[in-house]
Specification:
There is one protein chain. The protein has 223 residues and is an alpha/beta fold. 31% of the residues lie in helices and 20% in strands. Strands 3-2-4-5-7-6 form a six-stranded parallel β-sheet, with helices on both faces. A two-stranded antiparallel ribbon has the order 1-8. It has a two-stranded antiparallel sheet with strand order 9-10. Strand 9 and strand 10 form a beta hairpin. Helix 2 runs parallel beside helix 8. The protein is globular. It starts with a helix and ends with a strand.
């Protein structure tokens, strides 16, 4: 990937800015992509995680949801089964258990239970770990790494954050996208301006810190 990306236009983005850009590019390219969550509209999302999206795409595609994680995930699953590509935001990872039936018994199982007929292209986005506000630190990512049917990712760099969100949105199966809050507004890094995918199964470029992305929490394994 690095040789291909080196010839593209780069800007220096934070982790959060890179994710927002990936979502915006995907929504421009594919009208089936929409976003649902709490305070994701005019407020700009938790930690400004959807800043600018409602101004560009409006309330029909950046949809405000009630305080019910099970309803949000259930609605996203239904939309995915009918051909849409929803991104559903659970503001912080500690609220994932409130949607456990949808996350354990439905999303990862539907493709198998229908003999491969049903596809569930849904991204569940959430934030975990040590954040700037000292709250919501619980990280349940390891739970979901043991659930067959999910792809579970936690990117470690801004370029991986954009590439992996793009890959997650384009994937035909459910993806749990965890963000480490300590990285959200951390140091900027060069990120290509175009749409590109970063594999959800490989290691970061050897020119940067290398992280194990096959396990949901980023463990540094070398340089």
């Amino acid at each position: 990937m690095s040789a291909e990306l080196s010839v593209l236009t780069h800007r220096r983005l934070t982790h959060m800015e890179a994710i927002i850009e990936a979502i915006a590019v995907a929504m421009r390219e594919d009208p089936r992509v929409f976003y649902i969550g709490q305070d994701v509209g005019a407020m700009g999302g938790s930690m400004q995680g959807t800043k600018g999206l409602t101004e560009e795409f409006g309330p029909m595609r950046i949809r405000e949801a009630p305080i019910s994680e099970s309803a949000m995930v259930g609605a996203a699953l239904g939309a995915a089964l009918f051909g849409q590509r929803p991104i559903v935001e659970i503001s912080f990872g500690e609220f994932l258990p409130a949607a456990m039936n949808q996350l354990i018994n439905q999303a990862p199982n539907l493709h198998y239970m229908t003999g491969g007929t049903a596809r569930v292209p849904v991204v569940v986005r959430t934030r975990v770990g040590d954040g700037p506000y000292g709250g919501h630190p619980q990280d349940y990512s390891a739970w979901f790494a043991h659930v067959p049917g999910w792809k579970v990712v936690m990117p470690a760099t801004p370029v991986d954050a954009k590439g992996m969100m793009t890959a997650a949105i384009r994937d035909d199966g459910p993806v749990l996208f965890f963000e480490a809050m300590s990285l959200s507004h951390a140091a900027r890094a060069p990120v290509p301006s175009n749409a590109f995918e970063t594999s959800m199964r490989t290691l970061a470029s050897p020119t940067s810190q290398r992280w194990n992305r096959s396990w949901p929490t980023p463990h540094r394994i070398g340089v």
